[in-house]
Design brief:
- By secondary structure, the protein is an all-alpha fold.
- It is built from 44 helices and no strands.
- Helix 15 runs antiparallel to helix 16, helix 25 packs antiparallel against helix 26 and helix 39 runs parallel beside helix 41.
- The longest helix has 35 residues.
Amino acid sequence: MNNRLAKFCIGVLLASNLLACGGFDATERSEPTLADLQQVAPPQKDDALPVVSRRKVIDSYRSLLEITDDPEIRARAMARLGDLMMLESEERQLDSGETQQAVNRRYYDEVVAYYRQLLAEYPEREGNDSLYYQLSKAYDLDARQEESAETLDRLVRKYPDSPYAAEAHFRSGELLFADQRYREAQHDYEQVLRFGLDTPFFDNALYMKGWCEFKRSRYEESLLSYWRVMNRIWPKNTAVEDLRKSHQNLVDDTLRVMSLAFSYLDGPVSIRQLTADAGKMHYEPVLYEQLAELYLSKKRYKDTADTYQTFIDVYPNSDQAPLFHVRQIDAYDKGNFPTLILPAKQQYVENYGINSYFWSIKEEAVRDSLKPKLREYLQELAKVAHADAQEMKQIWQKNLGNKRKLAKLKFTDEDYFEQYRQAGRWYKEYLMTFPDADNSNALWFLYAESQYEARDYADAIGTYQRIAYAIPDHPKGAEAGYAALLTYDQHIETLADQPAGVKERWDDKRVDSSLRFADTYPGDPRASAVLLKASEDLLARQRYADAVSNARRLIDWQPTINQRQRLDAWLVISHGEFEQQNYAAAEQGYLQVRSLLPGDDPRLAGITENLAASVYKQGEQSLADGNVRDAIDQFLRVARVAPTAAIAVNAEFDAATHMLTLEAWPEAITVLQRFRQKYPNHELSKEVPAKLILAYQENGQWFEAAEELDQMARNDADPKSARTATYLSAELYQKSGRADKAVALFERYVASYPQPIEQQLEAVFQLSELQLAANNTTEYEKWLNKTIQIDRDMGAQRSDRSRYLAAKSSLHFADQRRAQFESVKLTLPLKKSLKRKKTALQAALQSYEQLANYQVEEFTTRATFNIANIYAQLSSDLINSERPPNMNELELAQYEVLLEEQAYPFEEQAIEIHETNARRSWAGIYDDWVQRSFEALAGLMPGRYNKEEITEVAADAIH
């Protein structure tokens, strides 16, 4: 009963003081109080003690005091009597059901008087600190706080190290605090703290010290005190709900007063400062929250939002950050700050959205907690950004033609492009965060449109194609697929300045996308046009097989394509097959195209040319395969299929050319003659004569060939070609038996072309041969002399051929001189005839010597033989010359001796020259004239040159 009263009384006292300063509920605390200390324990004996009333005990102690004079016994008895009187007063107060706050009735006067008497009688007694403590308690329980405080003050001054000093200081501090004497109260609380953590009043003293500092406007110091309190009563990793009730209340009150302190300082900045000064606090988020709530209660909305923002800045990855961000937005909303709300929502998405670092490090549970606000904010951000972009675009487009008005606008076209990009950003993030959202289909399309309007065509293409081909059954799939194609066109137009190959790669992508559209949405009314355009693009991109394949699909397209599309499809097929060298297929395609074109269509001429080319190319393929006959047929077919085509001329000409390779001379001659007749002014007609000449020659038509050559020579402006043609024409006339024509052409050649001299020499030689054949000696010898003259004039340009022809021509004249020599007979008078003979001899010898000087072997041996033979002939003619008449035998004998003496030197000279000719055999020269020299020597020197060859026969037998 006594303990209950004591707890109740001290609770009332603490409540009265702490509630005045915003403290905690002391009725729940477990720390000891004044009533709990120094209780007199009953003696513990094994024997049961009789029950004695407190009053009898009091009377017993009083009786003891009356009969004893021992100071020590009296002091102890009086102390114990005081304690009993204290308990009796407490019991009486409890039984009354009243508190000192309710009535002004004193229950402890007797106790007070008794303690004071005891202290007066024994002022220096050991243990008086407990009497001072009990006296203070009695004063306090009778609501005599001032006297209680004075008593406690005497206790701590007289007994500073007393076990009661800590509580005495604490009680003194409370009394001083209640009296608003905060400096002195703070001193007492600090004295309590001096006793260390073991004192049960440490936490409360620390807390009250903070309040004293707070009341004195020393907010920074108070915050440090509160920081220490919080760290002691709220362990880390412990929820507030798990604390005992007294600590929960203390935590709540401490947070409230700390919030006030922060608000009186620099708000959330002060929290950061406290953290910097004292250290990190696990309850720091609560400090920001409490401060924000305080600001909010005072309708300081901006300060509320700033407090949350400070925490977010300091702890961006805290789990509380998203919650505080939402509360910040709510504060903006309550404070009517509309311009701040949307940026804050944007910041929320950036801080905690799917692309944020926060999202990447958090578990799924945290992410799920973010999604409701992300869903709400992302949709709003996208909607607002898209609407703003559309409005900006509308204004810009409205003033597009007026540069002055455009200049006055507060934005540019790039600005509204960027606004569309912003909208697209939010659409994308929403779709990535909520891929299965009910409204995702609509948002995907809005996302693509925002990219398109921002002119981010490459990105828009990707999004449109995703809608069309990656999202099953999207209601706008076909629309998106077609929009992608239109966007490709826009994008490709922007690539003019890009490096080589960039535009081409995008062209290829567009074509592939077109084919995909046609494959995926064949029932779309635009599919056939898209497929046609793709086929044409494939053709342009040189993807010929794909172009043809898709164009042929169009031919069989259902529903049936229109006439124009059919024509264009066949054009693609024709051109594509042609480029793939499928010329037969190309021909069929061009025939289809030609049948679809009206007669006055300007494209008809070009198609005809292509048709002719496809047939012509078939001919070339046959040539490549070695089938020349088929190639000729194809070339000739060009004129039948497309007679007006320019290539038809070439085809017919090529047909004739390849007929020549097949040696189909009559057929080639027919085609060439027809070609020249059909195309007399065509450039290729200039080549016909040469081909006809070949065909005529190979076919044995020498005269016709000569005629062509003669005509060619007359018409050829090139002197060199004309010269060659003239000479060849002369040769062919000669070969055809028209010597007259040949002579005329050779004479024209000699007169017209003195150079090259070698060729002129040949022409002169041919003329000599023709005149020889015609027995026209005069002309023959004329051209022989011309031959000799040309060789002589050639000087250093003389050649083996020129010397040969000159030698051959000279032979005629040497043989002619020899014949003249042989025709002179030695008659009487011998001297006179011998003189004539010798003159002829010199002429003949000179001619043969000139012939030998050409150093042409064939004529040198012949000249040598003839020279020797002339000498031998003169010797013989002298011996056989006519004898003078009327000579006697002696005279005749003497005369013959004289003749022999005259003839012998000539014979010796003949032998010597023949031997010279014969010795050429030693060098391997043994022609007819060397052999004849040997034969002559056998007649002139039979003993040496007319011996029979001795042959030895070897026996097979061995002797």
